[in-house]
Every structure is written in structure tokens, then in C-alpha cells.
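[SOLVED] Predicted holo structure with pyridoxal-5'-phosphate

Edit: marking solved, answer below. Original request kept for reference. I posted the sequence and ligand SMILES and asked for the 3D complex as C-alpha cells.
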Amino acid sequence: MTTQIRPQPGIMDIALYEGGQAHVAGVSDAIKLSSNENPFGCSDKAKEAFQRAGHKLHRYPNTDHAGLRQAIGDVHGLDPDRIICGVGSDEIIHFLCQAYAGPRDEVVFTEHGFLMYRISTMAAGATPVSVPERERTTDVDAILAACTKKTRLVFIANPNNPTGTMIGLAELERLAKGLPKQAILVIDGAYAEYVEGYDGGAELATRLPNVFMTRTFSKIYGLGGLRIGWGYGPREIIDVLNRIRGPFNMSTPQLEVGEAAVRDQDWVKRCRDDNTRLRAWLAEALAEKGVPSDTSTANFILARFASEEEAAACDTYLKSEGLIVRRVAGYNLPNCLRITVGDEPSCRRVAHLIGLFKAGAA
Ligand SMILES: *Cc1c(COP(=O)(O)O)cnc(C)c1O
């Protein structure tokens, strides 16, 4: 029987997202530095909350997420009524595209921007517009030049993944104020907690009517497996997103663990301090071995090799030694490898192996 069942136009053009590899054939205890996960895991308070939530799994979760929104609001000094929670910040990105972009609309992001922006844009039937960066850094003027009367959303990860670079709040404000009237600036703060004293764009999203911020529990909170994210911005935008959000999008464990995790800021500070120290050590160790990187503000380093062939060969060698990093050719960075800052032994091991590789001893 032949059918005429077809997905919406554009859906089959979406390239499947590939997560960081987790296993190497033949290696049982590979070190995974491919997904920017917290090597120390999540806080004990979060683990205890997860245990407790196990006793209530027969009950539906609440639909208003009031407890988690209140906790986030308390910790960040934000109005809980302007917060929305989602299944990872991926879901918030998805809501934004579904709600604000459709056929004939354009969604702007940068050439080395996070892949989910393109996927969610195309899922909504809208047109992705990729803008050049300057030396692997967001270029506000290039973005403003790319905006048209069709632009509905502009996504900037700050710090950006996979480059690790970021721009200042004054530049973000200049971008927001220069956008066409119908466009929203989305500041993705997935790595904001790694930057001491940076609010992720919260103050801008409080003050300006066209700025929205997304955040996640997947990175510094060490909860990537649980899928918790949130968004914050103008009340009007929150109201729109809540209309397309499934009432039970967040499970009880997500809500309760998120609440416990966000209230444990001591854990966040310890993880930030460790990351800052180990990141500096790793960047310097790699530079000494002839592998430069831009100054990273996140929990990974974008290591630059002489060529695409050299990056690929180094990746293959590291894998053969049980160490998984991330190839970023799909981010238009074929000569680079993205390396998550792991614990101290992992940092030493990756630096040692790359040193052997560069010395031709591998
Ligand atoms: C990891 C990451 C996220 C987080 O996604 P979740 O769905 O919250 O796990 C968001 N944006 C960027 C740029 C990221 O690197």
C-alpha cells in the first residue's frame, strides 16, 4: 500500500544531533571528556532529594513548578513569576522557536553556535541564518547586519559552546537595543555559573523587553541525566511559552532535585573554583605542547591543531588510549577538539597524551 504520509516541510532536512561519545570499543573504563559534564557529579543534597522523590512516583507532579521557581528566584534574586522550567534548556529553546518562529521567519545564530538552535528552528519550519564570528567570538555588528524584518529570534550562547569565548554585558545590551522590533535576543547561559560575578544576562532580561535568558542544571550542577532547565524574561514571553508547555513536562524528581540543587550554592562555588584552577592548568599545559586555545570562560577548552587531519589523528589516538574528547567538525571547527575540564587526573592524562602525540611519540 502506498501512502502520502509526509512530515512537515523541512523536517527531513534536520541533521540528527550527535551527543558526545560515551564508550570506546574494547575499553571498559574510558575517561569521558566529550559532553561538558561536571566530573564531580551533583551535590549530595540533590542525591538525597532524588532518593526522597522515589517514594512519590505514583503521584502526578505539580504543574506550576512553584517550588522550583521560588528556589531559583530566591538564589538569583529574580521574580518567580517570570521563570519557566523545562526538560533541559533544550526544551525552552524549542518552546521559543515553536512560539515565535514559523515558515518565512528567520532565526539568527553564530557560525559556531550550539546545534540545538538550528534543529529547533527547522523543526518550527523557520529558516536558520548563520552569522560569521570574529576569531571564534560572537560579532555583534555581524549579527545586527544579518537581521531583517523576518528575524524573530537571535540565539547567543554566552559563554559559547564549543568556542568557550564570551562577550561582555555592554555588547549584549548593544545587540538587544539594535535588533529589529519583532526580534527577541535569547542569551543562553548554560555555562554562566562558571564565570565568577556574571549573572548570565539576568539583569538585561529583567530590564529590557526583548531579552530572554535560558539556564540549565546539566553543566555545573552535574545533573545532565535528569534534564532540568529554565528560562527567565519578560512576563509576556513567559505567558506565551506556558501556553505551549505540557502541563506535566517536569517530573517530580526533576522538580525536587532541582530545588535542592539550586539551594546548595556551596557546591556550585566549589565546582567553579576547581574548574577555574584546572582549566588554567590544562590550557597552559596544552599550549606548552604546541596546542593553543582561546581563553575559555566555560568548563571546556577548544584545542586548536595544525589541520583537520592532525585533529582527527589526535582524536583517534586519544580514543585508543581510552580517552574520549569531542570532534567539532559539525560546528565548522574541523581542526579543533573540544576537551571538557575533568578532574585533576583526567586533565593530567589528556595533557600527557597530547604531548606524546605532538612529539610524534604516539
Ligand atoms: C549543554 C548546553 C545546553 C544545555 O542543554 P540542556 O538541555 O539544559 O541539557 C544549552 N546550551 C548550550 C550552549 C549548551 O552547551
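OP edit: The mean pLDDT is 96. Thanks to everyone who chimed in.
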